[in-house]
User: Fold this.
Amino acid sequence: MTDSSSSDKNTPDNTLKSTEPPIKKDAKAKPTVSPRKPDRTSARTPVASPKQPISKTAIVSLLLSLATIAGVAALFYWHQQHASEQQTSINTKIQQNNDQFGQQVTQLLRQQQVNFQQQLTSALAETTAQNEARIAQLNAQISRLEQSSPEDWLLHEADYLIRIASRTIWFERDTKAAINLLKDADERLKALDSAKFLSIRQLIRADIEALKLVPELTTEEATLTLMALDEQIAQLPLAMADIPESIDNEEDLTLSNNTADWRENLAKTWQRFKQDFITIRRRNGQVEPLMSPAHQQNLKENLSLTLQQAQWAASKENNALYLASLDKAQAWLLTYFDTNEQKTIKFNQALQSLKNETIEFQLPSNLQSLEAIKQHMSESELETLPQQQTPINSPVQQEVQQSDISAQNGDVI
Assistant:
């Protein structure tokens, strides 16, 4: 291809050279460029090129590319196979775990069912035994009541009276009523005319003497007295200002009939005239200012509140607060009220007498006779109850024993 192109290019140049005359070359002259005409024949005629040899580098590169592609394909195929095997192994393990977990759950459910059935059987047996014992006890009580004598009724009445006496002491705090109830209980036991009740009667007498030593509670009397005193506060006279007597001696201003005393009569007349306009008296002692009406009302209200506090302390049986309130009321009374008046003196005496009232005392913790008669009643009931026991080979015990044996051996129902 290079040869033909070169030959084609040289052909027109040669023809031009042959036709044109030779021209002398001038060094200073500019080169002339002749226009080149396109060659039509060269563009139309195909020219055959010779075959080039294949490079070894290209062959090696091609082989390496094919080997790389084959390796990548093999690696992808191996990865797919490995992933499929791993997925299969994971699915197998999951299935095994699910089967194992299902077996464990089933086993636990069966074990719980066995335990629940054993507990149910045991509870049923226990309940049945308790019901049978209760029924037997009720039947024994019914039969004993049918066969009871008037002595039994008297014993029950004595027990009831002692119980009521204990509740009267602890809830109502009324020792007089409790003593009367205990005396009635002693009369019931005395009517039985039996030596086995002498110990209970002795304890009843001991409880009566112990209650007699307890002082009588006068809370109601103290409260009513305080309420009455509270209403009398408005009539109590307050300690007003005390003006001392004048120390000036009054002069005798009587005029005499003697004309010789005209000087003295003139002085007395002038002195009497001055007293009608200006009077000066001299007094010794400390004079306190008068209290305002508001101050007087506050003093009476404070005294009333102190008495109300004492009423509340008496109702709550708080002896310390009760005495402190009375002391405070007495202090207010002696400080701000007229102690020379009869009303104030009587009021103070009433407060002093209220301090001697009994609003709090310690009751006995229990009654000895109550515990003794309870013990006697329980012993008498135990003697009348039949001694019943469940047979050794009863169906209930056999079922319980069988369930225990099956639980120990690990049997599943």
User: Anything to note?
Assistant: The two ends are 104 Å apart (CA to CA). Residues 254 and 328 are 56 Å apart (CA to CA). Residues 216-242+292-361 form one domain.
